[in-house]
Automatic annotation (TrEMBL):
Keywords for this protein: Cell outer membrane, Ion transport, Iron, Iron transport, Membrane, Receptor, Signal, TonB box, Transmembrane, Transmembrane beta strand, Transport
Domain TonB-dependent receptor-like beta-barrel as annotated: residue spans: 359-800
Signal peptide range in chain numbering: 1-33
UniProt protein name: TonB-dependent receptor
Domain of life: Bacteria
Annotated membrane topology: Multi-pass membrane protein
The UniProt record lists the keyword Iron: yes
Subcellular location, principal: membrane
Record flagged with keyword Aminoacyl-tRNA synthetase: no
Family per record: Belongs to the TonB-dependent receptor family.
Domain TonB-dependent receptor plug per the UniProt entry, residue ranges: 58-165
């Protein structure tokens, strides 16, 4: 199988090169002198703001990959998954919460995998302003560019830039009126519409740009459960306005507003299970995929008293095609509507939330930035941003068709409203953030300085409810299951930072930069809407806490430096080295405070505290950037070594309950240590007027030094995880893009192009035990188009070879209402997500 897969990948790669070579060879102009093409190639220099000032990307001593608007369009990038597929070293994990919709999307850069759904190691920015949600990135219409900064960026970007940062830079309107429109339609009912207009309101003083985007698609997977339908439906609507105000020379103020709304159906995901899931009659509902077994124990704690060996079947190695059809009980009927209409204890009002199975999200973002040239050498800059997001998602938590498991059997209540096993679950979350930053910059021939301060205030609140019993009625529900559990309290962080940097050019070739940020993180966790009584002093002081009362707080202070040595060996070749430290803010185990005394005692015994320490990183990096062939060839290569310490890891706790199913809960603690190293390279080559090639690749290796997981040790009997790799991240990844095109003689502004893009990601581990792995994945996309005057028509095919291999894999719980659900079958399954299948379509563009 590996040989066949490799042959397919090789065939895909060679097919792109063959297409480009054949078409290019047919053009007599291939023999043109290099000098005639170099001028155009060198004109494509990319400017980035990785160090809070505009610099040529090839003269910026930071590892950064940039996507211009033209490059995003050429590659067909419209989602975070598209961006990750075209960025070696970047993965998107959307399965960590037991469902694979767009609610939880974790950015995994260089193998720095976040360990909880609310954690992040790579922060997101728009024009340098922090944002709390990846949804903003797919809502911005035709940005100037997207900058992916790799390695700790704490010195300039601050909080949660532990592994890197992603910054979207908006396109600014100018002094001329321009507009454009786009209409696209493809298979699986793929639709995209875009309209943009920009121009001056007051010439040379005030400019505006407005945009509107709509995207929708049907899922490409058919639901095998009763009622059918498709899984993976998505739609997004967004609008934005950018205003630039230049009242006099030296002052520029830019304002930006973004509104977006996502409305998705149920996702296409499922589980590999280690045991057959059967109904009472013995009919197999889910066939198991077990191909190995482990000898674990009943406690998962090394050397604990009362250990009993347990043999656990499991799924080992690289998983294959799921043996069970993708299915979910996601029928939107009166029962579903009644459940979603319950108003009590909601974070999102029923009329504003999801109206059936799927996701509904509303996101608003506003920011203002300003730059004032005080003198020819001193510039004052400031920014302020506000953002809010509210979403909820209704999922089939068990993730399979339970219609053959009759009500009244196993864990299925006799009063289950649909007459069979079903586990509808509603998750809600609200986030907000506001930030300010001000800085002064000084520029001279040999000295560059910047200094300033920043403030970020962010909140998050979550809620969830669901049951296998009665779904309709008011809260609290009658016997049959609680459907309206109270939302958790608000968690808030306030981050204050003072930062600065000095770069001195000792010679025309050698410069050294010293940068740093002193940061104070203040974390608060508040009670929910109901009083809570704490009787166990191991977590917080005993007593009764009123609704919305402060439960716990903590303050952490850290200094995060970075030193860069930059040597310009020639005008076209730069060598740099850097040393940097970063900090990822701490977290709270606030969920444990409101649980039973037995749970709190067990958590304290396992070393879980209310507050955990911040994670820390020390990163060493060496890079080379430059151009050759008079600018026709551009390249960047970087190698890094990072030490991740005080890593925050998830802890699952199994709490025995007399004569009842054990309680499965969890928290986080500082129980990990990881070393990471890798090498990344990017090349862009404009061979001549007809042919351009871009390619990139990365090896991102990780070595776990220390890790602890009670649930994994119960399953596998493994207590020493040293030498294993981090999950959810591809060790090997690469991209290749080949484009052939040219002007058409005799046509006014006429041209044609054919482009092929291939992306490769190696398989990812499902967890730190490294027992199960997703398959390698290669995807090939093709686009071709022709332009005449203001009109362009393109055809495209994504996932040309219809690679349906799963895109993510994570250790999960098996739901088995007959044989046991939580606890009994914890970690007895692997959760996976399915990709979009092959899609073909046509795009029509117009400019004026």
């Amino acid at each position: 199988m590996k040989t066949i897969r490799f042959q397919r990948q090789l065939s895909a790669s060679m097919s792109l090169v063959a297409i480009a070579t054949t078409l290019a060879a047919a053009q007599p102009a291939f023999a043109q002198a290099a000098d005639e093409t170099v001028e155009e190639a060198d004109a494509g220099a990319i400017v980035v703001t990785a160090r809070k000032r505009e610099e040529d990307i090839l003269q910026t001593p930071v590892t950064v990959q940039a996507f211009t608007a033209e490059k995003l369009d050429a590659k067909g990038v419209t989602t975070m998954q598209d961006l990750a597929a075209n960025t070696p070293g970047l993965n998107i994990n959307d399965s960590s919460s037991g469902h694979a919709d767009r609610g939880f999307q974790q950015v995994v850069l260089r193998g720095f995998t976040p360990v909880t759904t609310l954690a992040t190691t790579t922060s997101l920015f728009i024009d340098g302003v922090p944002v709390s949600s990846p949804s903003a990135f797919t809502s911005i219409s035709s940005p100037e560019r997207i900058e992916i900064l790799k390695g700790p960026q704490s010195a300039y970007f601050g909080r949660n830039t532990f592994a890197g940062a992603v910054n979207v830079v908006n396109r600014e309107p100018g002094n001329e009126f321009h507009g454009s429109g786009l209409v696209s339609y493809g298979t699986h009912d793929n639709q995209k519409y875009r309209a943009e207009i920009e121009g001056p309101i007051l010439e040379d003083i005030l400019y505006l740009r407005g945009s509107f985007d709509y995207f929708s698609k049907k899922g490409s997977w058919v639901n095998a459960a009763a009622g059918g339908g498709t899984l993976g439906d998505q739609s997004s609507t967004s609008g934005s306005v950018t205003a630039v105000f230049k009242p006099f020379t030296g002052l520029k103020i830019k304002g930006f507003m973004l509104f977006s709304k996502d409305s998705d159906g149920a996702p296409a995901n499922g589980r590999y299970v280690a045991y057959d899931v059967k109904n009472a009659a013995g009919t197999v509902i889910l066939k198991n995929s077990a191909n190995c077994s482990f000898t674990g124990d009943n406690r998962g704690v090394l050397g604990a008293a009362g250990l009993v060996a347990v043999v656990n079947p499991y799924i080992c190695g690289t998983v294959g095609t799921p043996p069970n059809p993708v299915s979910a009980n996601v029928k939107n009927d009166a029962i579903t509507a009644g459940f979603l209409a319950i108003p009590e204890n909601r974070l999102v009002r029923p009329q504003n939330g999801v109206q059936g199975y799927g996701l509904r999200r509303n996101y608003h973002h506003y920011h203002v930035t300003g730059d004032l040239d005080i003198t020819d050498q001193i510039t004052f800059s400031a920014l302020a941003g506000w953002g809010t997001e509210a979403w909820n998602t209704m999922i089939d938590l068990d993730g399979f068709d339970g219609s053959l498991i009759a009500a009244g059997t196993g864990a299925t209540p006799a009063n289950a409203p649909r007459g069979f096993y079903d586990f509808p679950f509603l998750v809600e979350r609200k986030t907000s953030d506001n930030s300010i930053e001000a800085r002064l910059a000084y520029e001279s021939d040999s000295l560059h300085m910047v200094g300033g301060f920043s403030y970020l205030n962010a909140t998050v609140q979550s809620a969830q409810r669901g049951t296998t019993g009665i779904l309709v009625g008011v809260a609290p529900a009658p016997a049959g299951g609680s459907v309206a559990g109270a939302p958790g309290g608000v968690s808030r962080n306030k981050t204050y930072g003072i930062f600065g940097g000095i770069t001195y050019d000792f010679t025309e070739q050698l410069s050294i930069s010293a940068e740093g940020r002193y940061q104070t993180d203040k974390l608060y966790v508040f009670n929910g809407a109901f009083p809570v009584t704490v009787t166990v002093p191991d977590l917080i002081p005993v007593g009764t806490y009123a609704p919305n009362a402060l439960l716990a707080s903590a303050t952490y202070k850290n200094f995060m430096p970075r030193v860069i040595v930059n040597f310009q060996a020639t005008p076209d070749l730069m060598i740099y080295g850097s040393w940097a430290k970063g900090v990822n803010p701490a977290q709270f185990n606030s969920n444990l405070i409101t649980q039973t005394a037995a749970t709190q005692v067990a958590a304290a015994a396992a070393g879980v505290k209310v507050a955990v320490l911040p994670e820390k990183i020390t990163n060493y990096e060496l890079g080379v950037k430059g151009k050759a062939l008079d600018g026709a060839l551009r390249f960047a290569v970087a190698a890094y070594y990072a030490q991740w310490r005080d890593q925050i890891n998830s802890v699952q706790l199994l709490i025995p309950v007399a004569n009842s199913t054990p309680i499965l809960t969890g928290g986080v603690q500082n129980a990990g240590s990881v070393d990471l190293k890798g090498i990344e390279a990017e090349i862009a080559f404009r061979a001549n007027d007809y042919l351009t090639i871009d390619m990139a690749g990365a090896i991102n290796d990780s070595n776990i030094k220390q890790f602890k997981s009670v649930s994994l040790s119960q399953l596998t009997g493994i207590y020493d995880y040293s030498g294993k790799e981090m999950p959810y991240s591809s060790k090997y990844s690469a991209t290749l893009g080949v484009q052939v095109g040219h002007d058409i003689d005799g046509w006014d502004n006429g041209s044609w192009f054919i482009r092929g893009d291939m992306s490769y990601k190696s398989g990812t581990w499902s967890g730190q035990a490294n027992t199960s792995k997703s398959p390698d994945r290669t995807v090939v996309n093709l686009r071709a188009g022709i332009t005449k005057g203001p009109f362009t028509i393109e055809g495209y095919v994504t996932n040309l070879f219809n690679n349906t291999s799963i895109t993510s894999l994570i250790d999960q719980t098996a739901f088995d209402p007959i044989g046991g659900t939580f606890g009994v079958r914890a970690n007895a399954a692997l959760f996976y997500n399915l990709p979009d299948q092959r899609t073909a379509g046509v795009v029509v563009k117009a400019k004026f």
